[in-house]
Each structure stands twice: as structure tokens, then as C-alpha cells.
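#struct-pred

JT: dropping the chains for the assembly here, can someone run the whole complex?
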Amino acid sequence: MAKNSTLRQIGVTGIGLILLSSVAVGVVAENKPATQSIGLGANFDKSSFRKAPTNITSDSLSVESEKHLFVYSGNVVVTQADMKIICENLEGRYNDKNQIEILTATKNVVITKADTIKATSQKAVYTAADGIVVMTDNPALEQNGSSLASDIIKIYLNENRSEAIGKVKVNLSPKSEEGAGPVPTGTPPTPTPPPSTPTPIPGVIILGQGK
Amino acid sequence: MRLTKLQSRILAVGVLALVFTAGFLLSRTKKEFGTIPTIEVSKDDDGTLDAKVVFGEFRKSEVKNGRKLWEVHAKTGRYSPEKGIGDLEFPEVTIYKPTETVVLTADKARIHLTLNSLTKIDAKGSVVAHAVNKDVTLKTSRVLYDKEIDKLHCPEHVEITGPQGSISGDDLEGTVDIKAFVFRRNVRTFIRADARKQNGNKANGKK
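RK: done, full complex below.
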């Protein structure tokens, strides 16, 4: 039937996997109280990403071509190459040229790459116009045992960088510090936790407490 | 019996009026059947007799304001004028939408007609619906189409394929041109690796 409108919509949702590209993490960076830059995308092979097909499974799918909207609901799993998005809801809006304008993943959002990098949050919004993914509601990144958590994590896809905004916590595992993991892209942070923070355990660095 | 001159004139005017009326009605809604039909009388499930017109080759269509709305073609068909129901073997139903033409084929279909306008289709068997302009194909085992609300319902498993990939799932409901639809269970979407490239080319006006 006239499914083309459908297919072109789901076709462009693949662009949403750009979200996944953001998770190639090298954690840690500059020591700014409220905004931390973290080097993302360093390990991401975009050429292989573009060559891979996309699979999306879900319990249900709703499409409204007139409004240029689609919604995948229930146990949503998006996979492309070694990348995966898991969430309960994936909504998207596209323009007249069938290009994604905005994608919103909500509820238990988990973005992984090759089982080594993992980003989690309750909400992740990708806006194509500025190429930014904004992860909110308890966003966190993990790689090689190291982790980063903050109020907001912004991923600038076009610039290969990210920002952790708000109350930022970075835990570096000894393995990461030996060079297997994240590489600082800015001035190494000084681990001086404010009085209110718990005593750091070995191998854990808590960065500036914003707000 | 001999008619007077006045009676002849009245009769002639009457015939002309009839022809004019018939022509006018036909111009609004054109109906056509294929071959010369035969009559078949059968007993319904409730025991009542039902006279059906049997066509060796069934054809019917509707034209409104000079535009064809739909046409049905089947190898054989049994049509009950009283009930407005046609049971068709290997039907091909073409629905002409303003921006799309949808061709539906199946092993069997029951069509409902009201005042010779198509109102419902219940197609079973190997159901294939093809959107010609967009080259998108839907395959399932049953489609129910209600023209009044312009919605179709596929209660079983559905697979939709197009140039950019495919969607499959169970229990689909949507408009016949699939501008709006809902898959209610087990949705699987496959997007070809070059789909984004196609989108990009389209956006740039390339083929």
C-alpha cells in the first residue's frame, strides 16, 4: 500500500542512530565548576556507521505523515553495527525532505557501543539543526570502569565534544588511568572535593560540584 | 393498439426524458460489469434464499466527476444485488487516491456496495497491496477496508517493504494510503544502509 510515506519516515529514523555515535567516550576534561568538557567521539568510526543497516524493534509503532511524526513504544531497541539504543519510547519529527529534525528517547534510555561504552539517562533529545544530543534525568556515561554523571550531558556531534553540566561526578578506574580508558582532553582536573562530598575512594575522582 | 398523435408525442418525450436521466446518472456514477451474467439461487446460513448474479469475469468501477474512484476485476464473482455484496475469486481492486494508486490483489475478497459505491472490502488469502507511485508493497493474509472512514485493518501479521527498507508487525490499522497508521504488536523495522543516502539525494534533487 502507500507505505512509502511510512518507510521514508522510518528511513530517516536511522539518522537517529547518530545518537549512538556520541557514546564513543573518552571521559574527563577541564575542571570547570559547572561545565565539564569531555572528549567524545574519539573512538567512533563514522564510515562503518554509515554503511550499516538499522534495525528497530518495538511493541508498537504509530506514524502520522501529515504531522511528520512517528512514535515507537514499548521495549524499543535500535541497533546499527555495534551500537544500540534501548528505551521505552522513541519519538521523532522530520521535515518535508524526510530528514530528521528531532528525536526524543525517553524512559530507561541506554545507549551502548560495542558493549564497552554505555550512556544512560531517562531522556535523550537529538536536535538535527544544531547536531546536539541533550541527555537529562540522571544522565551517566561509562567506559572501561570509569564513569561520569551530571545533571545534563550535552553531546556536540558535529564538534566531537561533549559537556557535562551541573553537578558533575567523574569516577576514573585505575585501568582507565593506565591509559586503557578515557584520555583527558584539557587541563587535568584537580581532585578537590568540597566538604559536602564523600571521601574519595582510591581510583575515584570527583570533579567540581556545580550549582 | 394505435396511438394517437398526442399519445405518440407524450411517449417520445417520456423516452427522451428517461434517456436523459439515465445518461445524467451514468455520468455521475458509471458502473460496468464484465461478461454476461447468470443467476444463481442459493440458501444462506439462516435458510433464506439468495439470488446471486454470477459473472465469469467480474468488472465494476465507479467514476465521479470524471475521475475514476475505484475499479474491481476478478476471475469470477457472485454478486447479490439485494444485499449489495460481491464474493470474488482472485480479485484485483484498484483504489485511486488523489496522490496515489493502490492495487490490491488477494485469493478471495468480499466487497460491499451501497448504491453501487464501494463501501467495504474484506480480502483474504495472499493479500498484496501495492502503492504504485511510491513502490511500496504490503503483504498479509487479511485486509479489511472501510472506505467510509478510509481506514484499513490488518489483524494478522503484516510486512511492508519499500525502497528504503521494511516494517513488519501484527495488527495494523491505518489509512489506505498509509499516511497515518498504527502497528500494535511486534514491530520490526529494517532500514537499508543507503536509505539515508537516498534521503540525502532526494533532498538534493538527485535520483
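JT: nice. Confidence is low (pLDDT under 50) at residues 24-32, 202-207 of chain B. The first strand of chain B starts at residue 38 and ends at 43.
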